[in-house]
Design goal:
alpha/beta
Length: 519
């Protein structure tokens, strides 16, 4: 067992170093618990699993005969880690892979399933051993709601219709009986269906008008086969700032959908064609650029929401950010098509900032899916054969899961700026919620890697008697966990919060994420 003493010493040094680097700057915060906001939908904390690299195979699935400890083929270490994370829902099978995936190839005896080439991700052979039953049973085992993406790009309406029947129907019907023949009598509860993926790009290179017509055609044949299961249809939405796409979909599809999907990735360089930046070898310039580009999510959500408000003032249609996260150059020596990258303290701040943005727009943002859950892009888990580690991003999701289905509380934040290279962003981001038991939680992110912050919070409508918390920080901005040092960065108890009558003071370390509970 690895001792926690070195970690605590490093954290103490980090906090001391931050204190001597520059005096803490003041942040003013007002929390009014008498004016509750919208509920923060737990599905904002969703994840994404694509047949890409080692996400499914070696990540989730090793098979029943693997020497790696497993339950019905699923890694036991991964199962335990995901239970702790309280994953609300999981998107599958893609991604770009979804629009080349034909579900009937992934059912029945595994040895008889046909193989295919994964043309999008590395050109490797996909043996289809992980299919509908394996995914939905995995979700059921963990109490995760499945979010299934239909093949609109290369599939057919009939294929999609039959898949929905196969998964959800309890009737004596052709597809339901085919499911029974493959060993599953009871249908699964699949509530969330995406009608295609990135139809503006890898899903078919469609125009918004053409996709809108396709959506309506597919949607006609996505049936509700049971009275106790009403399927939520999610349309392919815009790529980043393509506001025309949102306008056309809202105008032409409107109330035929329950959600509209938005995709936005954080690239430190902003360059899709060249280098995207290194995941672990970077300086403050790339730290700042990454966080600045992450905060662009606020503009995207705000502007797409404004278009949706025009056609849907009652906010019946959710904005679903079902692909987000950092995207760097792959780790040296790995398959470029596998998108394997490390995750550092920088990614923890990226996760916290995005989740705070989604909280702030909880009246419109009803679901989000970080890309991706294991071994791909901004993962929460990394595996190497029999070894498994969790990343700083994992820790943020675990720390913040107290916000799931809690009621957002309004905040007024006056934060100094974090400046670098003539540019600036707010140094401190804060979010607050009240859970169903009445407990208030506040989460903080200090983006400044050099300067601590002293947050003075005025409390209205709440008189807590105690405060407790945890902090995630590290000596260096690129600190990350490895298989040799799996606990180089992890949350530790936070003692920098002090209560007084009607107020709360928080001594927020530089480059940190903090969660507090007011009791």
């Amino acid at each position: 067992m690895t001792s926690k003493l070195p970690l605590m010493l490093l954290l103490s040094a980090a906090l001391a170093g931050a204190a001597t680097a520059a005096p803490a700057r003041p942040v003013s915060l007002t929390l009014d618990a008498t004016k509750p906001g919208p509920v923060i939908n737990k599905h904002i904390y969703g994840h994404f699993s694509e047949h890409l690299g080692r996400c499914i195979y070696e990540g989730i699935w090793v098979g029943e005969n693997s020497p790696i400890p497993n339950t019905k083929g699923y890694r036991n270490d991964v199962l335990a880690a995901l239970r702790t994370l309280k994953v609300p829902q999981l998107r599958w099978p893609g991604g770009c892979f979804a629009d080349e995936y034909h579900w009937k190839d992934g059912i029945g005896p595994r040895e008889k399933r046909p193989s295919m080439i994964n043309t999008h991700w590395g050109g490797v052979v996909e043996n289809n051993h992980f299919g509908t039953h394996e995914f939905l049973d995995f979700c059921e085992l963990l109490g995760i709601e499945p979010y299934v993406c239909l093949n609109v790009g290369s599939g057919s309406v009939q294929e999609a219709m039959e898949w929905v029947e196969y998964m959800t129907s309890d009737a004596s019907s052709p597809m339901a009986n085919l499911r029974r023949a493959h060993g599953r009598d009871k249908p699964w509860n699949v509530r969330y269906l995406a009608i295609g993926n990135e139809s503006w790009g890898c899903g078919g290179n469609m125009t918004p008008a053409y996709y809108a017509d396709n959506y309506k055609r597919y949607n006609t044949f996505v049936k509700n086969y049971r009275r106790d299961l009403r399927i939520q249809r999610i349309a392919c939405g815009p790529n980043e700032g393509n506001y025309e796409w949102t306008e056309v979909l809202m105008k032409n599809v409107g109330n035929r959908m329950h959600g509209l999907a938005l995709h936005y990735y954080t690239l430190p360089t902003g360059n899709w064609r060249g280098s995207k930046g290194h995941a672990t070898q970077f300086g403050e310039d790339m730290w700042f650029a990454t966080l600045q580009r992450t905060l662009h999510m606020e503009e995207l959500v705000t502007r797409h929401s404004a278009i949706m408000d025009k056609y849907d003032p009652q906010k019946r249609i959710g904005l679903v950010v079902d692909e987000w996260g950092t995207w760097y150059d792959v780790e040296a020596g790995t398959n470029p098509g596998f998108l394997y990258q490390q995750s550092t303290l920088r990614d923890a701040l990226v996760a916290a900032l995005n989740l705070h943005i989604f909280h702030a727009h909880a009246d419109r943002v009803t679901m989000a899916n970080i890309a991706q859950i294991i071994n791909v892009l901004q993962s929460v888990i990394l595996t190497d054969k029999e070894k498994m580690i969790v990343t700083p991003t994992y820790h943020v999701f675990e720390m913040f899961n107290v916000h799931q289905d809690a009621t957002a509380l309004p905040l007024e934040v006056q934060s100094p700026d974090y400046e670098f290279g003539g540019k600036k962003i707010p140094a401190v981001s804060v979010s607050a919620s009240r859970d169903k038991a009445g407990k208030i939680h506040l989460s903080f992110a200090n983006c400044d890697p050099n300067t601590a912050a002293t947050v003075t919070c005025t409390l209205t409508g709440v008189t807590p008697k105690a405060v407790r918390g945890r902090v995630l920080t590290a000596p260096a901005i690129n600190t990350h966990n490895t298989f040799a040092a799996p606990t180089a960065i992890q949350p530790v108890p936070f003692t920098g919060a002090t209560l007084a009558v009607g107020s709360l003071q928080v001594d927020l370390p530089a480059k940190s994420v903090v969660i507090l509970a007011l009791e």
